[in-house]
Amino acid sequence: MLTTRKKLNVIKDLQIHETDTGSAEIQVGLLTKRISELTDHLKLHKKDNHSRRGLLMMVGKRKRLLDYLAKNKAKVYASIIKKLGLKK
């Protein structure tokens, strides 16, 4: 489960300015954290298809946000990929 403390840590690492809480960069970071936690859950509970569907939806949303960043903010995209350890 993504606690408030974990969320704040992700936001602090990726925010552009002090009051930034919803930019594409932060959304990608939060989705990445939730995806990793849900992946661990699904390793234990292999037949949880409802959570699996939610995971696939989150992966799709993160992909769309990363495509947006790659098209409009190439430097930010490269830094986000490097920080989060994602594949291009």
Descriptors:
4 helices, Helix Hairpins, mainly alpha, 88 residues
User: What is the CATH C level class of the domain at 24-84, in words?
Assistant: Mainly Alpha
User: What is CATH's topology name of the domain at 24-84?
Assistant: Helix Hairpins
The overall strand count is 0
Main sheet specs:
none
Overall geometric form: globular
The residue fraction in helices comes out at over 70%
Give the mean pLDDT: 96
Describe the structure.
The chain has helices spanning 4-14, 24-44, 49-72, 74-84. The protein has 88 residues and is mainly α. The chain has a domain at 24-84: Helix Hairpins. Helix 2 (24-44) packs parallel to helix 4. The mean pLDDT is 96.
What's the structural blueprint in terms of helices and strands?
Blueprint (H helix, E strand, L loop, with lengths): L3 H11 L9 H21 L4 H24 L1 H11 L4
Helix pairs in contact: 1-2, 2-3, 2-4, 3-4
Q: How would you sum up this structure in a few lines?
A:
This protein has helices at residues 4-14, 24-44, 49-72, 74-84. The chain has four helices and no strands.
